[in-house]
C-alpha cells in the first residue's frame, strides 16, 4: 500500500508488526503477525473484531475505546487478569509495549501493568513517546444529537491524543469539584477549606478549558486550510460553549483562574442548593456544524452526520501528526458498512493518504473487495484470527 506524504510534519510513522494477547476478552491466546499499513479484520458480529481494536486502544491514556473497567476486559474463565503485547516498528527500530491487568492477591485489588521493552513504566502516558492513537466507533454515531457530556468526552479524547496529561487534569478537576460539593453540603463553617479547594479547582479547570480551546482552535485552522468543498466528507465547523472556556480563550491563565475562582466563591449558595457546581468546563459543550450548509450537525441526516464525523476524525489525525511528529494509528470500527459506494471509495482513498497504520473492522467482506492488495485482510472467528482465505 502506498503512503503519499499527506503528513509532511510526521517525522515518524510507527507500525504495529505483532499483536499478542493472553486472556483478553474472547481470546485465550493470540499471536498475530501484521504487515502493511491498512489492516482489515472481517468476521461475523460477535466474533471478536472490536476486541482487537480495544486491545490496541489500551496503549493510549485512558480506558480504551469502550471505556470499560479493565476487569471487564479479562476473559471469562481466565485467571482474572490479561496481558497485551505489541511490537512497534519505528524508524528502523522495534519496541515492545505491554499492557495488562494483574489479579490481586487474596482480596487485593487488581493492578494495571504497563511496560516498555519489558521495563515497568508508571502509566499508559509513557506510551505516547512511541505511539499515538485515534479511533471511531459506532457508539459515536449519535454524538452530535446526543447529550453534551458525550461531546465533552469526545473532545477530551481529541485533546488526549495531543496532550497525554490532559486526562489526569480532568480527573483531578472532577475530584476537586466532588470535594467542593461535599464541603458545601456541610455548611459555611468550611469557608477556609472552600477557599483552598476552589483555588485548586480554578487552576485545574482553566487548564482543562485552555487545552480544549487550543485543540479546537488548531483543528478549525487545519480544517480551513485543507477544506475541499467537493469532498464526500463535508468539513465541520466547531465552536466551544462555556463560561470557563470563554475565560480561557480571552484571558491570560492567571486572570482566568482569578475570575473562575471568584465565580465559584460568589455562587456557593446557588451551588449548595443545586447540590453540584454549576459553572466550569464540566458543563461546557462542543458545537459542531455542517460547514457547507452552515447548519447544526444535529439537524443533518444520519449519513451526513457519519460523514462529518469521519472527516473530523481524519482531520484530527492530521493535527496529531502535525503537533506530535507521530502519525497516529487509526482504529475504525465498522466505519464503512453504512456508506454508499461513492463515500466508501472516498473513505478508502482517504485512509490510504493518511500515511499511518489503519485498522478497520467489518462484517461483510464485499465492502472491502475493492481494496484488493491495498489492504491486508484477516478473518476473525471466535477466539481466533487468520489470514483471509485465499490470501
What would you say this structure looks like, in words?
α2 (148-162) packs across α4, α3 packs antiparallel against α4 (191-225) and α5 (243-250) runs antiparallel to α6. The longest helix is centred in the middle third of the chain and has 35 residues, at 191-225. The protein starts with 14 loop residues before the first strand and ends with a strand. The chain has a domain at 148-301: Glutathione S-transferase Yfyf (Class Pi), Chain A, domain 2 (Up-down Bundle). It is α/β, with parallel strands linked by helices and 391 residues long. The chain has a six-stranded antiparallel sheet with strand order 2-1-4-5-6-7, covered by helices on one side. A six-stranded mixed sheet has the order 8-12-13-3-14-15, sandwiched between helices. Strands 9-10-11 form a three-stranded antiparallel sheet. The protein is built from nine helices and 15 strands. The model is unreliable at 1-5 (pLDDT under 50).
